[in-house]
Amino acid sequence: MDQTLNIIALREAISNVTKILADRGIKVTQRGSKAFVRSVNGRPKSVNIPFLPENATRELIDAINGFIDHEVGHLLFTDFDVIHEGSKMGKAIADLHNQCEDPFVEKKMSERFKGSAANLENVGNFYLLKVMQVKFDEALAAGKKSFIQSLLLLPAIRAFAGQPVYKRFMDDKWVHCDGLLRVITPDIREMLENAESTQDSLDAAIAIHKAMTTPKRKPPPEKDEDDEDDDEEEGEDPGELTAPDESESEEDPDDDDDDDEDDDEDDEDDDEDESGPGASDEEDDDEDEDEDEDEDDEDEGVAASADATDEDDSDEDESDDEEDDESEGEDSVAGEDEPGAGEEEDESDDEEEAPLMTDKELAEALEEGDFDEAVAEAITEDTRGVIRDSTYNVFTNEDDVIEPFPVDHTYNDEMLESMENQTRQMVGPLQKNLERLVTAQKHSRWNSGLRTGRVNSASLYRLKTGDTRVMRRREVMGETKDVAVSLVLDNSGSMQGSKLDLTMISAYAMSTVLDRLGVAHEVSGFTTIYSGYSTPEEIAEEERKLGMSFSRYEALYLPIYKGFNEKLGVEQKQRMALAPHKHSFTRNNVDGESIAVAATRLLKRPEAGKIMLVLSDGAPAAHGNHDHLNQHLRDTVQKYTNLGVKLIGIGIQDSSVKHFYPEYTVLRNLDDLPGQLMKELRKIIL
């Protein structure tokens, strides 16, 4: 589908952004196929937008508009001093800060600029569809459960920040994010959603980093009342992230289940246990048997216990010492666990669980889903696809020049006097003919039901009821044609001499007549300038990546002789009079693009009718692909005709225009102008 008007709007938006950011030292370019942002110490210095061909999809155009708004948001609302401070805290926090900053700046852009909310939602959808959904589907198919949670970190952060497009995306994916839902607590989510500065975003990033990378205590097991009493006596805080203190474990009572009332007696029993057999010989025997079985089964146990058993199982004193060590290392839950577990085994089964991610894993997860980089790569990939499918491609239009034609010291008044003398005789007749065309055909109608005028026999029946409205009167209707006209002149080198003289004199005559009639019009020319060759290395590299050549390389030069908003004054007349005598500016001609620029300016006019007259001596001729240039001219004529512009090609002493313009005429000399011009204008106006 043709997206001409959308691409025109995009290029104008880029032009406006360029003006906004110029004062901030930010260079905005539009060239090649690659989207990127270049930064120095975290501060953006340049932004490049791909130069889209006219077959670009609406989805790609919308994504680029959103990409522009996103980057402008950073440039307008991000405090880069705070960004620099965050970068000192490590890569994970720096990258996390960037992801937390994105929803903040997008919120501010939506509040500040009308239309930004839609643009940012479009680029969000583009990112989720082109990048995130693809990776998610691949990971899900491969069964990479832990990777999925890492992958979804970025859209989860944006969903927590309240962005609707990300909340919708995450609706059916939260089931894969139990860890994120656990550690990113409501207070952190509130920080994300209510961020009003880059510092707020950094605070949220630090909180998320701590929540994800700091070990957590495992939830305590369900306990009966006696167990809760034990915890109180131990004095442990279940929220602490440190392992339990062994000295406190030694002092814990070991016989709660006995419900002894006399603590002193318990202490004496403990002393007995340390020095020899306990109160229950049967229990001790079972304990010894369990110890032996555990030592045989375990490859690695507590070193002291294993050594003691291997050296002398029959030595009662050593066995008692071993039991001592075990007793000291056991928790208050010895009655529930199997006895014989060593001190080292207890440490591996403490109440501290691993963090959701290590610092390195978090940095890798953030890199995997980086928004700015991923969107830029997706835009670049899609742009290269449409460029390869396009029949006409340009590296950039940055070197193109549209300016009022300069009147320099080479001008003299004889030039203007000569032009006026040559057109004086034809202006009168031409004006009368054009006036008839730009004025709608007069027509009349009978207006009935009047009390004065001529009798309308069909209304006489009204007299029976006393109604005297039986007259009618003829009314003549007529109004000025609501039109704007663009005169587009070929100023290429092949036009030098009599052709350029005829072109400029004809344009001068038509402009004079249109000005007298009060018809809005513009007179412009088209040729090329040498500065288009300013980036040959960059162009060559881009062509290598695309595997194809661009259609044209020269920059356009479009002189304005009389603008739509200008009266035909002395300066405007001097411009047209000087042009045939100034050969230094006439080079090559890229007709299709030049006409497109003029037609775009014409389409902006409020007038209902749009007429364009193109005066040229032949086919496009410029450094590039000639087949592309010729076909692009045909496509451009058809495209703008479909958009409502009535186009006429006027061949200047050459009939080549018939190959490009369905409506055309050939002008051999100045005397032919009134007749030939009026003939073609009647076709398209009446």
Q: Can you describe what's shown?
A:
This protein has a seven-stranded mixed β-sheet, with helices on both faces. A three-stranded mixed β-sheet has the order 1-3-2. It is α/β, with parallel strands linked by helices and 686 residues long. The longest helix is centred in the first third of the chain and has 27 residues, at 116-142. α2 packs antiparallel against α20 (371-389), α5 runs antiparallel to α6 (145-151) and α7 (153-160) crosses α8. Residues 231-349 have low confidence and may be disordered. The two termini are 31 Å apart. It is 53% helix and 13% strand. The protein has 27 helices and 15 strands.
Number of helices: 27
Report the sheet-strand fraction.
5-15%
Oligomeric category: single chain
Q: What does the main sheet amount to?
A: 7 strands, mixed
Give the gist of this structure.
With 686 residues, the chain is of the alpha/beta class. It is 53% helix and 13% strand.
